[in-house]
Write a structure and sequence with these properties.
single chain; about 150 residues; alpha+beta; Sufe protein. Chain: A; 3 strands; binds FE2/S2 (inorganic) cluster
Length: about 150
């Protein structure tokens, strides 16, 4: 079985930016119906830049480490730059994840996208046109889970 990188362990043990944000400009709430893990990500935006990001995750160690890393990665980025932060970018920044835990990083990407979507809807009235939440969750889990768990 593949093991976790030092960086994953470090972010799992000392997650950055944990907690709820007061008056966030965008909230992204996602869940994985297969494992039941839930992630909520908050962003504060000023002049089109994400000036703060926080998260609350009820989930596995990889979900906590990816939440922590995604909040670190998006801070200081413009909305457009933040949308380019993929789950792969989060995984790379963590020094990799075991294959069976890759779906956990997808949760982080989705939470970020939904937080940006929420921000855009509130400020411009037009979001990113993301699929319905349930369909989204289901798709990501189906795609990322190992064959035997589908
Ligand atoms: Fe559910 Fe990691 S096992 S997000």
């Amino acid at each position: 079985m593949e093991s976790y990188s030092n960086k994953v362990m470090e972010h799992f043990k000392n997650p950055r930016n944990v907690g709820e944000m007061e008056n966030p400009d965008g909230i992204g709430h996602v869940g994985n119906p297969v494992c039941g893990d839930i992630m909520e990500l908050y962003i504060k935006v000023k002049d089109n830049k994400i000036i703060d990001a926080k998260f609350k995750t009820f989930g596995c160690g990889a979900a906590i480490a990816t939440s922590s890393m995604v909040t670190e990665l998006v801070k200081g980025k413009t909305i457009e730059e933040a949308l380019k932060v993929t789950n792969q970018a989060v995984v790379d920044a963590l020094g990799g994840l075991p294959k069976v835990k890759l779906h956990c990083s997808v949760l982080a990407e989705q939470a970020l996208q939904r937080a940006v979507d929420d921000y855009l809807k509130k400020t411009t009235g037009k979001g990113l046109g993301l699929p319905e939440e349930d369909a989204d969750h289901h798709k990501s889990c189906e795609n990322d889970l190992p064959e035997e768990l589908k």
